[in-house]
Specification:
CATH superfamily: HAD superfamily/HAD-like
Distance between the termini: 17 Å
Number of domains: 1
CATH class: Alpha Beta
Helix content: 40-55%
Shape: globular
Order of helices and strands: HEHHHHHEHEEEHEHEHE
């Protein structure tokens, strides 16, 4: 039995996928991070922490959070990319240390999803996180959900002489970019993908089986309705 927050229907659907793919040479499951593995958006929260601490460089003349929201409203992929570009000039090792500290204090882990990850790993399925948040903070969050840090992909920028630049690496891990990253970094079609929003739709459609996760306190009703229409197993926390 999985964690009691996981419904019997969701667990049964997951076990069927594991059982029917047991003979495959390599099996992979991909997860979104924010609002899927854990509550809320860890990338946005880390950005707000950096803003509040005055850690960002060369931004004294702009309202960073307002600019981020403006860019996301205009183009979500561009906005998510800018959320890491605005960290340019910071030493990578310092930002990594901050991300490690921030993740240690993050209060929003989902025990139910941790049990899902464990079941997959115990069954010989590789678990990967493909997130639209910055890779550095998701890299530090992954162990708290039982995911290997070398199986994390997220928004990432190039580093030169130990400092973050403003040059985004591709593919950018949002929307269709998630599928591009899976093809490039993983190389096999997932037996299952888990997500919570339209930003995960292409990844869910690409996988052999889609699982949708929601949050009761602020349900994405249109996406949950899509899951019901398509017969995708869905789970709320």
């Amino acid at each position: 039995m999985l964690h009691p927050t996981i419904t019997p229907e969701f667990e049964a659907a997951l076990r069927r996928v594991i059982d029917k793919t047991s003979g495959a040479a390599r099996r992979v499951a991909t997860f979104d991070g924010d609002n899927t593995l854990w509550d809320a958006d860890i990338g946005e929260a880390f950005l707000r922490w950096l803003i509040a601490g005055g850690h960002l460089l060369g931004v004294d003349d702009i309202d960073v959070w307002a600019e981020y929201e403006r860019r996301v409203a205009a183009d979500r992929v561009v906005g998510y990319g800018w959320a890491v570009q605005v960290m340019q000039g910071l030493p990578e090792d310092r930002l990594q240390a901050w991300a490690r500290q921030f993740s240690y204090a993050w209060p929003a882990w989902r025990d139910g999803m941790r049990s899902v990850v464990k079941l997959l790993e115990d069954s010989g399925v590789e678990v990967w996180i493909v997130s639209a948040s910055g890779r550095l903070v998701v890299h530090e969050a992954a162990p708290y959900m039982g995911v290997s840090q070398d199986r994390v992909r997220g928004m990432e920028i190039e580093v030169a002489d130990g400092l973050l630049t403003d040059r985004l690496k591709t593919p950018m891990t949002a929307n269709a970019g998630k599928v591009e990253m899976i093809r490039e970094a993983i190389g096999v079609r997932p037996i299952a993908a888990f997500g919570d929003s339209r930003g995960d739709l292409e990844m869910l459609e690409y996988a052999e089986n889609a699982f949708v996760v929601g949050q009761r306190s602020r349900t994405n009703e249109s996406f949950m309705n899509l899951a019901r229409e398509r017969g995708w197993p869905h789970q709320e926390f």
